[in-house]
Structures are given as C-alpha cells and as structure tokens.
C-alpha cells in the first residue's frame, strides 16, 4: 500500500497506483539507524525524536514530526472499574508516650514549659476526703479539709450555726467597710434580709447596717426581739413599734406600744408614761407629791396638776436677753423669761442690761415682751 502526506490534516492518506506517494516502512531507533539506501519515497520515523525521514533518491530528507493541528476534545469515556486496593504503607514512628514511673494516686504534671516534658507528682488541691463530721461546713485547714465545729448544712441547703462566743471574739463578724454614696437602689445594707424576687429601692445613700425588706402583702413582724419566748421589742409590717406586749399608746396606724410603765428619772425625780394616753406623771422624792401633765379630752388643752388640788404651774428659768435663741429659729408662739430687760412695756422688743424680769414671746421674727 502506498501513502501520501496530506499537509492540511497532517495525516498520511492512501494513494492510488498512478500517484507518486510516500511509502511508510516503519521506525528506526534514531537518525543514525536509517538504512544506507532505499527506494525513492520510502519513509521511516526515528523513535527517539518522532521525526519522519523520506528517501529522495540520494539522501534522507527530514520531514519533521508531521503533527497536524489539535483536534476537538473527544467525548468522555465510561468510568473504568475500581482498581485493587494498594498495599498497606509502612508503620509510622512511635509518638511521645506517658513518662514511665509514678506511684498510686500520683498525677501527671508539666515539668517545664517545653513540649512533652512531664513528670509524676503527688496530687494537691481539688477533691479530697471531707473533714469533721457529717454535714459540717468545710474550710481549708492547712491544706486539708476541715469541718467547722457547731455548723451544719442539710440536703435542702438549710444552714445551722451553733458557735459559742469568746472574749473579744464574736462567732460571726461582718468586718468589711459599709457601702455609701450610691443611689437609693444600689446602696444596699451591709446585711440584707430580702426574699428572692423582692426589689428594694429606698435605702439611705449614707449606708445601712441591717436591712429587712419583706415582700408585698407580708403582714407579720419585720423585727421581733424576745427573752425566753416573750417579745420585748418588735416592729410590725405596718411600721408599728411595740415595746413589751400590751398596748399602751396608739395614734392613727403608726404607734408605739409599752407593755408596762416607762420610767423617767431626772436629778432623783422619776416619772412615768401612763397607759391609755392618760398623761405623764412625775414623783418628787423630796415632798412625796405627784405632778401630772395631761391633755384635756374636751378642750385639747394641757393641764398641770399636783394630783390632789387640781392646780399646778409651769416654772421657766429666766435667762439673759443675750441668751435668747433667734426668734425665727424657735418659731412664733415660743415663750420664755428674761431677767435683765430695761423695760416692761408690752410688745416692746426686750433690751438687755436692765434689772426687770419679764416674760417674752416670739412672733416668728422678733422677741417681744408680754
């Protein structure tokens, strides 16, 4: 079969018998392996370079690689079957393991900042065996757990402290500085008793030591001080202060109650505030007579009596005019006595330096004789 080279396609086409054509005979290893002579038109390809050579009758001519233009991409072929699994690779080098040694209950710890530099050490901190008795509050006892004697916490969180005091050593102390200077909401008491969900917004900005804030609707006592089960002092949710247990005095809804008589003593004399709002009595230890001050129910006036004749008087110690406080400070209606007035003229302003003892009163601006 004869062929001719087609320069437009880069292929060898079959040639008819009457056409002078190239006769591709095969391949040789390289140009040096071409035969010494051949028939005109004989073609060989060198395997090392891919170049074609043609015999022109006297020599081999280089036709080049005879590569034509790239054709269009062909359709993707069907996926072939999966190949067999390859052989397992070689084992990698051993990693850094746990350092050998150590004893029971020891733990692994870093020996330095370097990677993998570890050592076995005795465990400190963290867990441990509780100290003391069952339920006692725990504390750090020189690096070990210790239980506080006289304390207990149950499974519900209820805490009981049965701690005895000692000289200059209260069993419970709050020694931190009290907070001041915030708002009425943020200046919380040093010790605050307040149910969850209750909001307190009216604390003194100067600070509070003990605060109690009950929930809305609470109707019991905010404070109750007792002696062997007997209430001695209490404050109710309505703002009532009760001393003792028997009603002694009441005014509107805020009042003070005295369970008995409140004694008053001054320079040997004693007095009592009577139950039921009767009045105030003073006993004179020298004369043995009583002196009463009581409000009159019908007139609203205050009467003074010695307890037997129904009469009495008020004695005011006189002062110098210069010793009177400012009339505006004490307010209109305030009365007094001066012992050194220069005049006794009614409604005249008192002037000191004289020898007259006269009553004076304040009109809210000035002291006047009268």
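^ structure tokens above, recovered residues below v
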């Amino acid at each position: 079969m004869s062929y001719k080279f087609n320069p437009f396609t880069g292929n060898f086409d079959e040639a008819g018998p009457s056409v002078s054509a190239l006769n591709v005979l095969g391949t040789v290893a390289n140009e040096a392996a071409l035969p010494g002579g051949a028939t005109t038109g004989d073609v060989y390809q060198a395997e090392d370079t891919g170049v074609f050579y043609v015999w022109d009758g006297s020599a081999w001519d280089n036709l080049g690689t005879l590569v034509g233009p790239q054709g269009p991409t062909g359709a993707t072929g069907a996926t072939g079957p999966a190949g067999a699994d390859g052989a397992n690779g070689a084992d990698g080098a051993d990693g850094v393991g746990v350092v050998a040694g150590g004893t029971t209950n020891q733990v692994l710890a870093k020996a330095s900042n370097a990677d993998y530099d570890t050592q076995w050490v005795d465990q400190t901190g963290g867990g441990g065996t509780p100290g003391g008795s069952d339920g006692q509050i725990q504390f750090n006892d020189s690096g070990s757990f210790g239980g506080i004697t006289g304390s207990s916490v149950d499974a519900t969180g209820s805490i009981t402290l049965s701690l005895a005091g000692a000289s200059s050593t209260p069993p419970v102390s709050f020694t931190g500085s009290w907070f001041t200077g915030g708002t009425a909401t943020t200046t919380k008491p040093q010790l605050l008793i307040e149910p969850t969900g209750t909001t307190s917004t009216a604390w003194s900005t100067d600070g509070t030591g003990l605060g109690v804030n009950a929930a809305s609707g609470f109707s019991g006592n905010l404070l109750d001080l007792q002696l062997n089960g007997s209430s001695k002092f209490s404050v109710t949710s309505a703002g009532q202060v009760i001393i003792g247990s028997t009603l002694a005095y009441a005014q509107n809804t805020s009042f003070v109650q005295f369970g008995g008589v409140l004694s008053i003593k001054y320079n040997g004399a004693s007095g009592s505030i009577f139950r039921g709002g009767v009045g105030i009595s003073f006993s004179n230890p020298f004369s043995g007579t009583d002196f009463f001050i009581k409000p009159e129910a019908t007139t609203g006036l205050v009467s003074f009596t010695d307890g037997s004749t129904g009469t009495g008087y008020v004695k005011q110690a006189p002062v110098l005019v210069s010793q009177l406080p400012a009339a505006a400070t004490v307010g209109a209606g305030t009365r007094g006595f001066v012992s050194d007035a220069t005049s006794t003229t009614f409604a005249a302003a008192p002037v000191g330096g004289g020898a007259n003892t006269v009553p004076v009163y304040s009109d809210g601006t000035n002291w006047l004789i009268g």
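The longest strand covers residues 221-227.
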